[in-house]
Structure formats: structure tokens, C-alpha cells
């Protein structure tokens, strides 16, 4: 799904305010809808498509509403995909209605976690439910976006894990009981009895600490020993393509007889399972596989998240440099726009010039990870599961092997700390061995 915002300068009202329009593209459909918000043209940030943070612009009210509309659209598409159906325009309009309605409070505060007079105090799990609800309503202070659905699902999973722990071990959950005995009992349950990894246990503890800090903010009696709870984190490696694997994907010729035959066989084996009617058309299906390959290469060549790659347009190209703001974090990304022996972004973008709509470098590609499974079979990639996230990690890994300094690669990906950046660095064992041998021969 691709969502853009436009300021309709040609539709100024008598007060000199222009309406903000949202354009939503998905699965070959396009919906233009008014956001219900207006702004002075000089207060509109044309590059970042939001209201500037200046006095009198009402940015603190308008930007969160625009973000809420986008979030509602994305959640509607996700729900449709989970149900295995195409998202219709009518269904999307219905999903957007709550966010578009004037007078709706977009960020209502949760009632403080204290019991009213005559009411029973809320239980530990009820408090966790209230915390999850408040977390879902909070907006990121920089991007004005609500919490990502995957992050919210993680909070719910932690709440469920503590409920199952309490039920299995017959241990009551209380704020006062958050001590070392609880910590060790929960660790044994997760790691020894359930056999889960240290990182899984660590994630639950990190979320628990955040929840208990929230309880303290509500002036609830929390055992302060929870502050000593440690959340282990073990490096487990990163799924990134090697240079040879990336070249195999690059060299796929979708016009060759061999690839056409493979595609035909894969289509026969999979098309009956597809829910979307257009997927039964072989030519459309094969063309979408090719687009998924190219969209993956775009992620490999730029290091962008798929959400940002879907918005990357020629307006972001400044000579031999791409400058785009990361949608998730708001960080600035400075990406080289030239070709070398491996990274061939200019060649890829030129192939789609005048073919991609709305000034994009490449057309949008819905359900990209689903079609990357076909690409992986064509290229013989079995070592890992191909996904758009692998593309971002491949960029980081291979750029470092090219000798680009870490700080410069971080400027391309938008990372601000090496700790978060290192989670994207994989190992190309062949390149590693070659570098060891090269340096050994120089020393000799």
C-alpha cells in the first residue's frame, strides 16, 4: 500500500486555507479522499508531506490525524490480507470513517490505573490491558505515527505469557510481588520448561520493566526491585545475502525460455491457492514476480525499508545522492545514486522511467514477500527466507565488505546508534575469507 498526501493549493477557501488530500493506492486500486483538514500553503512541508512545526499551523493536531488515517488504511489492508480477501474501496472507506470523523478524539488518555471509590482495585493483568491500550493510542513524537502493529502484538504476547505463567505455576501476579523470586521463577518457566531462547525471555522482561514504570507513573505501589531485572540479549546472526546470491537474483532473465518454463510450473503449482482473482492470469502473475524481484533489488541497492522504498521517487534524487526521510524513525537517509559493479540502482530506476506512476523510481508492489518466495525458487536461494527486510540487511552487509566506513553506511540507513545498526550486519563468509587471505598475503 502506498499512501501520499497532497495540498490542494487550487482549492483555497476564503480564509486562504488549502485542503489536505490523501491518495491511497493498493492492489491496482486508487482512492483519493479528503482528510477534513486545511492549512495555509506556507505552513505545508512539501518535502515531508506534513504540516510544519511552526506557531499557528496547528501541526500538533493535524499531523497526528493524518498519521491516524494512514494507520487505519494500513490496518484495513493487513486485516484483508489475513482474511485472504481483496480490500474493496467500500471496505477501506468504512475503515477510514472513524479517523476522518470530526470531533473524534484521536489520542484519548486512558483512565488512571487507580480504583474509584467503591470500586475493586484492578488486577495485574487488567492493568497490563490498560497499558497496552494506552500504548496503542500514543503517537511517536517525531513521526506522529501510532505504534506499529507488530510492536503492539509483542506487548499483547507478553501479557498473555504472564497470564499463562500465573496459571501454570499457580503464582499470583501483583505489583508488590515483582522481586527476584518472581524473576527467577519466570526465567525457569520460559527458558527451561518452555525451551525458549534467552532473547525471547529478554523481550518479555524489557516489556515488563516498561509496564511497571508506567504503573509507577500512575502512583501505584510497585516493588522497586524490578529495576534490577536484567533482560539478556544474545547475538544470533543476521540473514543477509552473500554477493554471489545477490548476483544470482540480479541475473534472473524473465524473458529467457528456462525462467519462463520455471514460472509456468510454479504458477500451475500455486495459482489454485491464490485468493486474488487477477493472480489466475499467468501473464499478470509472472509480471508481478518480476516486479517483486526488482523491488527487492531496490531494497538491496538503497538499504531502505520496504515502506520507504515504496515511496521513493525522483524528487528524492539530488544529483548522485538520494535524500529521503525514514518514515518509521524520521531519520535522514543519504544514499548514493550511482552504479558500481554490484549495486546498480541507476540502471534499475532507468528501466522503469516513464513506466512507474506518480514519479516513483519503481511501481508499488503489493504482497512483495509472498512473491519473493517464487523469486527465491527461481534463483535457488534455500539458505534463508527471502523478504524485503533481507534486502536492507544485504545492503548494510555488502557495503561494509566494500570497505565503506560504518558511519557512512549508517547515514544511508538512517541509524543513529551502532547498537541498532549492528542488528543489520550479516556475514558473507566467502568475502570474509578472501579478505583474510588478501591481508595475510600482504603481510607475507
From TrEMBL:
This is Tyrosine-type recombinase/integrase. The keyword Ligase does not apply. GO terms for biological process: DNA integration; DNA recombination. Keywords: DNA recombination, DNA-binding. InterPro entries: Arm-DNA-bind_5, DNA_brk_join_enz, Integrase-like_cat_sf, Integrase_catalytic, Integrase_recombinase_N. The keyword DNA-binding applies. Residues 270-437 form the Tyr recombinase domain. GO terms for molecular function: DNA binding. Pfam families: Arm-DNA-bind_5 (PF17293), Phage_integrase (PF00589). Gene3D superfamilies: 1.10.150.130, Intergrase catalytic core. It comes from Hymenobacter telluris.
Amino acid at each position: 500500500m502506498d499512501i501520499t498526501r497532497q495540498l490542494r493549493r487550487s482549492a483555497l477557501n476564503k480564509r486562504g486555507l488549502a485542503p489536505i488530500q490523501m491518495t491511497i493506492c493498493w492492489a491496482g486500486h486508487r482512492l483519493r479522499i479528503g482528510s477534513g483538514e486545511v492549512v495555509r500553503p506556507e505552513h505545508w512541508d512539501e518535502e515531508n508531506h506534513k504540516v510544519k512545526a511552526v506557531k499557528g499551523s496547528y501541526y500538533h493536531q493535524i499531523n497526528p490525524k493524518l498519521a491516524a488515517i494512514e494507520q487505519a488504511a494500513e490496518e484495513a489492508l493487513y486485516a484483508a490480507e489475513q482474511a485472504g480477501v481483496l480490500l474493496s474501496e467500500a471496505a477501506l472507506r468504512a475503515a477510514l470513517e472513524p479517523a476522518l470523523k470530526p470531533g473524534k478524539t484521536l489520542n484519548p488518555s486512558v483512565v488512571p490505573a487507580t480504583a474509584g471509590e467503591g470500586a475493586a482495585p484492578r488486577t495485574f493483568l487488567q492493568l497490563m490491558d490498560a497499558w497496552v491500550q494506552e500504548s496503542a493510542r500514543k503517537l511517536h513524537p517525531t513521526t506522529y505515527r501510532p505504534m506499529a502493529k507488530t510492536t503492539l502484538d509483542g506487548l499483547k504476547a507478553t501479557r498473555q505469557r504472564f497470564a499463562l505463567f500465573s496459571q501454570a505455576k499457580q503464582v499470583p501476579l501483583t505489583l508488590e510481588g515483582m522481586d527476584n523470586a518472581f524473576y527467577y521463577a519466570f526465567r525457569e518457566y520460559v527458558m527451561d520448561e518452555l525451551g525458549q531462547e534467552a532473547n525471547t525471555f529478554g523481550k518479555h522482561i524489557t516489556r515488563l520493566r516498561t509496564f511497571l514504570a508506567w504503573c509507577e507513573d500512575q502512583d501505584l505501589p510497585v516493588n522497586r526491585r524490578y529495576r534490577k531485572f536484567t533482560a539478556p540479549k544474545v547475538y544470533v546472526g543476521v540473514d543477509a545475502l552473500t554477493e554471489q546470491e545477490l548476483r544470482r537474483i540480479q541475473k534472473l532473465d524473465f524473458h529467457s525460455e528456462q525462467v519462463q518454463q520455471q514460472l509456468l510450473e510454479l504458477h500451475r503449482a500455486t495459482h489454485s491457492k491464490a485468493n486474488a482473482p487477477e493472480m489466475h492470469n499467468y501473464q499478470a502473475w509472472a509480471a508481478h514476480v518480476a516486479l517483486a524481484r526488482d523491488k527487492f533489488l531496490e531494497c538491496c541497492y538503497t538499504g531502505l525499508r520496504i515502506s520507504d522504498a515504496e515511496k521513493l521517487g525522483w524528487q528524492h534524487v539530488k544529483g548522485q545522492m538520494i535524500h529521503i526521510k525514514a518514515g518509521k524513525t524520521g531519520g535522514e537517509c543519504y544514499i548514493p545514486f550511482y552504479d558500481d559493479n554490484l549495486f546498480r540502482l541507476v540502471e534499475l530506476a532507468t528501466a522503469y522511467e516513464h513506466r512507474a506512476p506518480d514519479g516513483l523510481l519503481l511501481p508499488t508492489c503489493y504482497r512483495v514477500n509472498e512473491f519473493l518466495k517464487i523469486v527465491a525458487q527461481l534463483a535457488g536461494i534455500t539458505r534463508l527466507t527471502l523478504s524485503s527486510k533481507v534486502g536492507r540487511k544485504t545492503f548494510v552487509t555488502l557495503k561494509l565488505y566494500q570497505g565503506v566506513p560504518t558511519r557512512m553506511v549508517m547515514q544511508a540507513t538512517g541509524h543513529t546508534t551502532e547498537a541498532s545498526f549492528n542488528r543489520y550486519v550479516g556475514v558473507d563468509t566467502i568475502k570474509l575469507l578472501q579478505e583474510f587471505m588478501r591481508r595475510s598475503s600482504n603481510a607475507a
